[in-house]
């Protein structure tokens, strides 16, 4: 085992730091605001009253979230090496922003937030029914991230130091310029660049941005719904997740340093991994329905667990095992949270 200082800042994430406003709601509430379970969308006008209504009608929890930030925190938790991970994104100068900074720092992540003067810290409504979640993000300050922040020497130093990068697809809507700088740096320096399909709307409405960075992606993560949407948008005319995973892994690459690996989770069904034109399936850890609290953060936790072993250069099988372990922990708790120490070997 290499000494822990070799892991200093080895993994960098960039994304939208959001405060989750989470509650178990009812079908009527989902219908009223026209939201679907197992989906993630950006808030429109019609959704804005939702956040206050949730806190007046239901038992609301406030939990630090944001897809990439969740994954980075989970990787940090799994690694148990302080400062192994870093994260950048934009928050507001408010109590939510302060709470987020405290939370991420306590988790051991080296956070360099851009603090926006005008917009409040972004929030994400998490509506839970029967353990399944629907996400409605009001990006607010998270939408204000500027590539100028990334270019500052103290922030670019995090990019230089890292050897692995993870950016959720959600960041495509905010700062493609930042993604371009990081992905090009990774390609030029033989580092590992990874992204997530993240949501059907990203695959549909941010297709061009997603396609622009696909050649740089050494690992592509996603779930079965996102994979099927990706297939549909690209005119592949197949719903077969294994075939889709193979096709994604075979799309052109910017450099030949690493082959592309596609990793698709399917809830309780096996994880599909495609590389070299072949698929391997890995079963997840079974969980009884009564132990499921909510799926919020399950996919993020999977990526965090996976990356925690990838940075240690473990086998794909080990990476998937760690991902399954982390997501199994998170779905038994509210939001993307975890006990003090992992119990994974």
UniProtKB/TrEMBL annotation:
One of its GO terms (biological process) is adenosine salvage. It catalyses: adenosine + ATP = AMP + ADP + H(+). Keywords: ATP-binding, Host-virus interaction, Kinase, Magnesium, Nucleotide-binding, Purine salvage, Transferase. CDD domains: adenosine_kinase (cd01168). SUPFAM superfamilies: Ribokinase-like. Its cofactor is Mg(2+). GO terms for cellular component: cytosol; nucleus. Pfam families: PfkB. The active site is at 300 (proton acceptor). GO terms for molecular function: adenosine kinase activity; ATP binding. Its EC number is 2.7.1.20. Residues 30-339 form the Carbohydrate kinase PfkB domain. It comes from the Eukaryota. Pathway: Purine metabolism; AMP biosynthesis via salvage pathway; AMP from adenosine: step 1/1. Belongs to the carbohydrate kinase PfkB family. ATP dependent phosphorylation of adenosine and other related nucleoside analogs to monophosphate derivatives. Essential to sustain methyl recycling. This is Adenosine kinase. The gene is LOC108818468.
